[in-house]
Amino acid sequence: MMSADTMTATKTMNMIEAINSAMDVMLERDSNVVVMGEDVGFFGGVFRATAGLQKKHGKTRVFDTPINECGIIGVAVGMGAYGLRPVPEIQFADYIYPGLDQLVSEAARLRYRSAADFICPMTVRTPFGGGIFGGQTHSQSPESIMTHICGVKTVIPSNPYDAKGLLIAAIEDNDPVVFLEPKRIYNGPFSGYYDRPVEPWSKHAASAVPEGHYRIELGKAATVREGEALTVLAYGTMVHVVKTIVEELKVDAEIIDLRTLLPLDIDAIEASVKKTGRCLVIHEATRTSGFGAELAALVQERCFYHLEAPVERVTGFDTPYPHSLEWAYFPGPVRIATALTKILKD
Amino acid sequence: MPETDRRPASNLPPLSLHIPEPRYRPGDTPDFGDIVVPAVDATPRPSEATKPDAMRELCYGLVRVLDFDGQAKGQWDPKLSPERLRTMLRYMMLVRAFDDRMFRAQRQGKTSFYMKCTGEEATSVASTMALDRGDMCFPSYRQQGILIARDYPLIQMMNQIYSNRGDHLLGRQLPIMYSAPKHGFFSVSGNLATQYPQAAGWAMASASKGDSRIATVWCGEGSSAEGDFHSALTFATVYNAPVIFNVVNNQWAISSFSGFAGGERTTFAARAVGYGIAGLRVDGNDPLAVYAATQWAADRARTNSGPTLIEHFTYRSEGHSTSDDPSAYRPADEASAWPFGDPIARLRQHLETLGEWDGERHEAQRAELENLVKTTQKQSEKLGILGHGMHQPFETMFQDVFEDMPWHLKEQCAQMLAEQEAKFGPDWKPE
């Protein structure tokens, strides 16, 4: 998984630091990389993901933008056509919608419509997901909107090591990538129990991050936990939540962290489900037409005769993300345990 | 809701909603007598470094060079050589000959769609001629004049229009949505005004790299209402981007007159004022004025003096596209009533006034260009016309979605090839 030049010193990093390090490495290596977005320059981003980068790499490489997501993505498309490799930040995934036409109709289609006369090597970074009392406009999970666009890759890391390697691979990719960062786990993995203390990343093995350049290939899932009883397909924050619950319930689950939703690692999914015969799909996003629907369809198309129970989905509800009732909305321990009981009973 | 509940106690008249309405509809006699036509030398030419707030009146005036007697006058006269003027005339005449031929080809059923730029040739040809060859153009869909003025091969344009075997875009794009990177011509989208922030971004990239090339972009007055227009002007002014924004105000967006983009209230050039960028309003049917304004804006951009918004005041003489019927919503003879005439006729008159052109040469050139287009068309048609559309290997449908084809597209491609074989047999090849 690691390329040859990765055997540099490692450092303990949380996800923010790992993401910052990925951009730092790429700004250093490739003079065409530019980082931009609302508050990302002098201030270093509202989540600090770009802290120090402007000071180190200069104002024309790392800069603030107007509050205009259509402009941020549209300008990045033009920069890509010039030959730059822009890494725009959308401050919250909830704000990406004003830029969606530039993403769907322009960035995603430019290579196709011009028969590769022009390409769009852009990586849109954006924090997503709930669990921080962000209310309906700072908590959404729009990944299935992204995967429904043809021509965009969708990547979601679940730990510091993956975040850096995947982000470097995304920036080096010659196609547009939407890099969704699960903001709830920026500072530490989340157990799913909002009323327990947060564990810092430093206690987690994946916080050992090489300081230099390394890539994690897009389109490859990771097996977080091997097991025989069922396969759990998860990504982002939910990888940690579901791992906590299955271990508490002593369920011998195999947990697959998808890491890239598109292109999807179908081989890893198929191999695991054929081995376990049961499949639970979990995401924080709303249920109807969520990415879980795609996963459930793929599993039944490819593994139907190996299945011993219907594919089960654990998701957020089809409501806006509520502010005060956040933990009633979140697919937490009770919802997961109920689904596990159901899928394992036959 | 009862009337009494809806109206507060007040002696004010009820509110009324204004729905813009063009002055003339089919059957009316158009009269543009109220359009202010300033004298040719009434608009001073400021220095290219002038601060935007010191030249606001240019957003409300009209840059003109040619008077209606064919004389070039005033500070904006670019003083082009007769040779250069003849080249400009030739390009505009070639655009018109090409448009006429391709429009007819669509009517003959050889392709699905075409868009003419009749009456607006100057806004792309003269504009492009005032740029450097390396400057990047982000066109909308009616700027075929850019390609013609940069000597892009006509046959490539036709192959694209026919989606035939020679179409380098592999039949993926609607006719006229060209892409020509070597000619500094960005891929035409079809979604309106999306190219505006992209041009600002290209210009920002060029500036950040210390390059000398600038970007230019076109949209219509109708699509200046898009949010992308606002995004682009905001980014351009914030970063002082070396970009020229062209708004081709041809009065009509399909059937919606310019009033639906705010044209009843102010000029489109005046949009520049709010952003603090330079604005010029130009007689878009005066090729020398278009050239001069573009040259001014290009010099300004190239010297880090900032972006410019140019409104080209013109008239769309024909329908929006082959799918449009303008006689359903405007008087048939409105174009002939347009007070600024026709750009080709005006440049011809100017050259004749200079003694550098005559009717005989004009007719000979028209015949030569019509013949050139016709001959090229025959060559293009040897590579196929749209017809059933299946001129490319089917698998090209799945290429270029990504640089490398992921498994799900490979699977879908295999499915499609199986469908192809079921329908056409194993030996079928694209025609």
Descriptive report:
The complex is a heterodimer of chains A (346) and B (431). Chain A is an alpha/beta fold and 346 residues long. A five-stranded mixed beta sheet of chain A has the order 9-11-10-13-14, sandwiched between helices. In chain A, strands 5-7-6-12 form a four-stranded mixed beta sheet. In chain A, helix 3 packs parallel to helix 4, helix 8 crosses helix 12 and helix 9 packs across helix 10. In chain B, the strands form two sheets. Chain B has a five-stranded parallel beta sheet, sandwiched between helices. The interface between A and B is large, with 46 and 45 residues.
Which features does this protein show?
heterodimer, A: 346 residues, alpha/beta, Rossmann fold, 2 domains, five-stranded mixed beta sheet, 14 strands, 34% helix, 17% strand, globular, B: 431 residues, five-stranded parallel beta sheet, two-stranded antiparallel ribbon, 13 helices, 7% strand
Produce the secondary structure layout.
The complex is a heterodimer of chains A (346) and B (431).
Chain A (H helix, E strand, L loop, with lengths): L9 E3 L2 H15 L3 E5 L15 H5 L4 E3 L4 H14 L2 E5 L10 H8 L2 H4 L9 E6 L14 H5 L5 E3 L4 H13 L4 E6 L25 E3 L11 E4 L4 E5 L2 H12 L4 E5 L2 E3 L3 H11 L2 E4 L8 H13 L8 E3 L11 H4 L3 H12 L2
Parallel strand pairs in A: 2-3, 2-4, 5-7, 6-7, 10-11, 10-13, 13-14
Antiparallel strand pairs in A: 1-8, 6-12, 9-11
Chain B lengths: L2 H4 L75 H26 L13 H9 L6 E3 L5 H6 L4 H9 L32 H14 L6 E6 L6 H13 L3 E7 L2 E2 L2 E2 L13 H5 L2 E6 L3 H16 L5 E6 L20 H4 L5 H11 L5 H23 L25 H18 L7
Parallel strand pairs in B: 1-2, 2-3, 3-7, 6-7
Antiparallel strand pairs in B: 4-5
Helix pairs in contact in B: 2-3, 2-11, 2-12, 3-9, 5-12, 6-7
